[in-house]
Amino acid sequence: MMEVPENHAKPSGRKIQFPVVRFFAEIGDPDKEPLLHLGAGGPGASMGLEPENASDWLWVNYAGMTIEDGRDLIVIDPRGTGMAQPKLACDEFIKDADLAFTRNLSTDEESRVFTYSMERCYSRLSETADLAQYNSATVAQDIDALREALGVPQFNLYGVSYASRYALTIARDFPDSVRAMVLNSAVFPNIIYTQQLPEDVIAAYQRGLDYCGQDTACNKQYPDLKRRLESLVQALDESPLTVETANVHPGEQYPFVLTGQRLLRVLFQALYNEQFYKELPAIIEELESEQADLLKPSIASFMGLVLDPNFGDAAGISHFCYEEAPFVDFDVARQSAANSGILGGSVRSDIDMMQVQCRIWAIPSAPLLESRAIKPRVPTLVMHGALDPVLSAKDADKARKKLPNHQWLLFPQLAHDVISASDCAEQAAASFLDQPEQPVAEIAASCRKEELAQQAELEKKLAELEAEREKQEQDGATRGASEDDDQRNRKIPAGNRYSEAH
Fold first, then answer.
1. Which residue among 6, 110, 146, 186 sits deepest, i.e. has the most Cβ atoms within 10 Å of its Cβ?
2. Which ranges are annotated Basic and acidic residues under compositional bias (predicted)?
3. CB 384 within 8 Å of CB 185
């Protein structure tokens, strides 16, 4: 555990801690500085360092660019999240949400429930924590204190999702402490996400629907998906469907009440994973028959995030209210949401809730610096998925051009967190870290092309095996029906053991 002042301007004041795990290289290279993984993003997401969660995945996704390549890997949970002390999690929200999602609540009723949750959470946590001290700038100070404590001249920084903002902030505030950066599915301070949230969310749904629409066979099998999804949202808001879902609470079924607005939330979260895009059309079709078996894994994943006791949602609210909300024109965002149609319904309530949370938190606003583009000279690799629902590839492409010394890799058919989904992305990051000034785009593009070809071949073989299995089942059913006919045509003697048993 790394101990730092909660308020770095008051070094003798209250102390907090955050966890640090160091995986040592199999054969260490003294010339290779460690790679520091800045956490799971969110902000507020846990890296899974807890004893009940920790497993090989903590390092296996990064082994090729660290421990197998002579470079140590250091993993943390940032202040307020995961195993950090204090962990700024709203237990009140978890308990209320656990009950709320089993009830048919209107959007207004749900908002009132969660507003009350936030009020109780703030009242409890503000007694023992200065919630104004949980933001990207203070995390950057924590990291430089860690670097000094470890005696490391420079870090290589790895930031995925919101943790990429940490990396950019560290490079801005402590440029001499950073050798190179890998930004995976990055967010950028100069993009006011809430301002464009309605259009971004609608665009994410559209990418999900277009994934099928751009395939002739899929489009023929599942036509007019947008209209059908909009109709589903309206129908479920009028008459919700209770979906008995396993894997929410161990050993029991969870009666998730699926309204139209909750369907939108579940789908948006599922779009973080590119594998879901292939499943979406069949899910829409099944829901039209008032069935939701195919959606159950996505509901369980959604509720797993909502009910995660290690998610530092209070720390996440502090980040938002300090470094983004002050720069949002909520009237403009609200007007945009009002014009976003049926698929923008959940966004309208989200924008209202964001503003309510910041009124409750009542923390000071960040200086204007925190809304400006960061332009460090540090060599930077920016990797993005073409299907990313958080920030469109177009916007990411525009934002990354502010970086004066960077390389850009766009991965087709990948969504959020490309390194977890593609060996090619990790190999590109490994090559970049070894020689940050050498181009990696051409090798990465060639690798990804081959990776997609192998994936298509595998999917083809799996489809053939599935078709063969179905054929065998049909043949077996046909033979069984024929044998039954034969049995029915035979006369069974009276008193036969079979007849008695029957």
1. 186
2. 463-476
3. yes
Torsion of CA 306, 312, 314, 319, to 10 degrees: -110
Closest CA to 100 of 303, 308, 316, 346: 303
Identify the three-state secondary structure at position 493.
coil
User: Would you say the C-alpha torsion 100, 103, 108, 112 has a positive or negative sign?
Assistant: negative
CA–CA separation, 444 and 401 (whole Å): 20
Please enumerate in sequence order all residues whose Cβ is within 8 A of that of 366, keeping only pairs 6 or more positions apart, or say none: 135, 137, 322, 323, 326
Cis amide leading into 86 (omega within 30):
yes
Question: Is residue 243 classed as helix, strand or coil in its secondary structure?
Answer: strand
| Runs of H (alpha helix) within 295-392 | 296-306, 313-323, 330-338, 345-361
Question: Which token pair is 3?
Answer: 């101990």
Contacts of 330 (CB under 8 A, 6+ apart): 194, 351, 354, 355
Per-residue pLDDT tens over the stretch 25-63: 988 888 899 999 999 999 999 999 988 777 666 778 899
Looking at every residue in the chain, the average pLDDT score rounds to 93
Provide the token pair at 281. 């059309």
Question: Quick one: pLDDT at residue 500?
Answer: 30
Determine if the peptide bond prior to 43 is cis (ω within 30°).
yes
Band of pLDDT at residue 290, cut at 50, 70 and 90: very high
Per-residue tokens: 234: 């309206």
For residues 276 and 302, the answer to whether their CB atoms sit within 8 Å is no
Joined tokens for residue 140: 């950057």
Q: Please determine, for residue 230, whether its predicted confidence score (pLDDT) is greater than 70.
A: yes
Contacts of 141 (CB under 8 A, 6+ apart): 4, 8, 173
The one-character DSSP state at 176 is G
pLDDT tens readout for residues 301-359:
999 999 999 999 999 999 999 999 999 999 999 999 999 999 999 999 999 999 999 99
474's CB contacts (< 8 A; 6+ apart) are: none
